[in-house]
Sequence to fold (278 residues):
Amino acid sequence: MPQTSYLTAPAIGLNGSPADCGIKKDLALAAEGTVPVGIAVVRGTAEEQVKQPAAPAAASATAIIASGFATAATAVTKGTADANGAIGATRIWPPRNLTATFSSHADVDAGTLLLKGITPAGDVVEETLYVPDAGNTTLVGKVCFEYFLEARLSPMAGVGGAVTIGIGTDMGPISGRDVVGASMYDSGKVTQTDYAEDDVVSVRRKGNLFVTSETVTTKGEPVWVRFVAGGAEVRGAFRKDADGSAGAPDACLLRGARWARTITAAGVSEIELDLAAG
Fold:
């Protein structure tokens, strides 16, 4: 007698498995550390390696300029040579917003601080922050930069005020410059959930792939990648939004990716990747 009913509906696909037979680009690279299946993987230490994304650096008031920036009766400009913080003038990744912390001092007048840097799109952008009288504040920028270039402070009452430049909690978009692709399921390892150190990882850079989404997804909508993880959350996991809170996201927008399927609950969905164009 033929079977005419089924108790359960099969999943639309297996996490990390190909979703179609269209144009694709897959790479075979070595795992640096443990690499879960079905996540966004980033470039490793060596050219032939990939790894799970690391947790982003904590917000720091002194990450860019830690010392040597004081108010003055004339305008003050600090550039990359003055960037003596832990990050300094090196690349900020994931891209972050900048902060400016002013000491409490009568020499700090109401004025402006102009921050200039390079955005993830490669544009040189200036952002103006407004300094309150007497300082004792941290100003938080809105623009996320990959590189710091310059800080220009308007004339103040004297040289007694101190300023540091740091990074905030906001994170900007990422692209195929750093995200190599999504780690694929290896059918030769039936029970596999992770690649071990030095395993050969199949990575999809262009094409469609089934992946586990932390959230519902809508076909055609953008894709976000988790960087801040707690509990059972996994760095590199895909989702539909930034999570976290306003100005302090837990995930970054991934350029060159979009959802190729709509699902109404967290689970396996389909992602379309073209990271060479991202």
Observations:
- The radius of gyration is 23 Å.
- The CA atoms of residues 9 and 268 lie 13 Å apart.
- The chain has two domains: 25-55+175-277, 60-171.
- The chain has a mean pLDDT of 94.
